[in-house]
């Protein structure tokens, strides 16, 4: 356990959804696990005036909603005593001066300060400016850190502009750019399993691997986020961040050590080695679609355009890309990455198909697959060919199936892990600006080309599998979308 300095977490946007569902419950759980330092305060900052008592009652509501089975009263009392509220009305020119006054009460607020900006992306830079203007980012005596929620920019130029703006006041070591997938234990396990096992590394390359599929599908639709989503789309929302980070961990070279710099250096290298997607042959490399009305778990659900109330939108809820990594390990190996809302299954996994075996025995023989399940099931599986007992020589696939998560293992939410890292001063599970930029550089041309192309977008019924037309991006005729992690999940 790393030592954590006494500190204050200043939570901007504390009454928003992220804070209610993830941050407050996450901090509470850390407190219950004994991971918060004794001297640690939480100052929630919101637009409206709220008394401390009312804020405490609100927090209790958040915890009740999250922990339906109840929670320890002693921990609750300790946790609630850490919590304070500060009103920061947007119309008040003195708001940040007042925030400074509040924070100057050293007895209540330890002076190492971590600011969590769970605010509108357009407010990231102005909040940092304001904090700097009242000298609340000064690290002379205490550390000062700033967490920037996703998305960091909406394209490469805006990400660069945001970076230029905040680095007028902050050093890289003070900036924590979130991609919450990096807080998931299953993602952190990818590196471990690749490099802490002798059997995997020698076959992890173009000589043995036919192709890689990285999939993240959801059964959920866009819900009440229609306006946000229509300005964003699946490429920006999921591929630019979570899916490309999963790819980086799958494809990167071995880091020289597990330090933040060690891991990031290799992730940056591999992201920068991805070949730009040729916009003049986009239809062979990228595919988009939108969900139409359909059924999820036996219930009828509306289509995306109906939910949005705008039949002209060409924004994708399904996106698939074919990528190549131009380095010696991966030359010529396609990486198919895809994400979708309202597909038939909610599953995140890495599926690797190996090349044809040296001995071809006849029909029924399949190529080997290695599958790493990220969610809902955390597992690693290897499918191998085996003789069907009997007089004839026939093969079938059998599965070596190991759960990465076992009964009794701790379940830590990604945000809990990341909040702890923040207080510990470890930003290895946060994004470096070079990663953010490489990710935008890759998806920007596709986003732009898709936005210009106003032809109606392919539709797939909610609850269905990938649209048939998406197969256009496959390099070889015998490649197909791998479905569930179960054996036979490749069936069309
Ligand atoms: C968010 C996206 O970053 O990740 C959402 O904005 C998506 O659209 C979510 O649903 C998925 O996260 P998780 O942890 O539920 O897989």
Can you walk me through this structure?
- By secondary structure, the protein is of the alpha/beta class.
- It folds into two domains: 7-149, 3-Layer(aba) Sandwich (Rossmann fold), CATH 3.40.50.720; 182-410 and 433-439 and 458-473, Dihydrodipicolinate Reductase, domain 2.
- It has helices spanning 17-32, 52-66, 73-82, 95-103, 124-133, 156-166, 185-195, 226-230, 233-251, 260-272, 304-308, 414-424, 433-452; strands at residues 7-12, 40-46, 83-87, 113-117, 144-148, 175-177, 209-217, 286-292, 294-296, 299-301, 318-323, 335-340, 347-354, 369-375, 379-387, 395-403, 458-461.
- The chain has a nine-stranded mixed β-sheet with strand order 16-15-14-13-7-12-11-8-17. A six-stranded parallel β-sheet has the order 3-2-1-4-5-6. Strands 9-10 form a two-stranded antiparallel ribbon.
- The chain is globular.
- The two termini are 47 Å apart.
- Bound molecules: 6-O-phosphono-beta-D-glucopyranose.
- 6-O-phosphono-beta-D-glucopyranose binds at residues 150, 218, 237.
